[in-house]
Amino acid sequence: MTLLKWKDEYSVKEETVDEQHKGLFKLSNEIYNLVEAGVDDSEHFRELFMALNDYSVEHFIYEEMYMREQGYPDLDEHIQQHLDFSDKLKDLCVGIEKETHVKDIGKFVTTWLVEHVINEDMKYKEFVEDKN
User: Fold this and answer.
1) CATH code assigned at 56
2) What's the whole-model pTM score?
């Protein structure tokens, strides 16, 4: 698990989406900080993961509406990636007190966020830029 730092290269040049991405990074970093501090409170982590899930769903809805407005041709594939993330996060959080280790959830979240923003979100950024 790594601490996420926002970089200008992550910007999709849509202010609300960028702010939401920063918010997702912030929540991920809160999880990181607790893991690094050795906090072992499954209830606290559960609350953080639920907040992360709620915020990501809100973000996904906004981002998908934006992509639909822009006529992004790969919207269905992008939506499926969002659904896969949400399903995986829920599956991991269900087992938070059992087989799932908080660090594993955190690693999944940070890896997915950065890879998704850098690889997938940049595709619709380029599409919008090319269109305009």
Assistant:
1) 1.20.120.50
2) 0.87
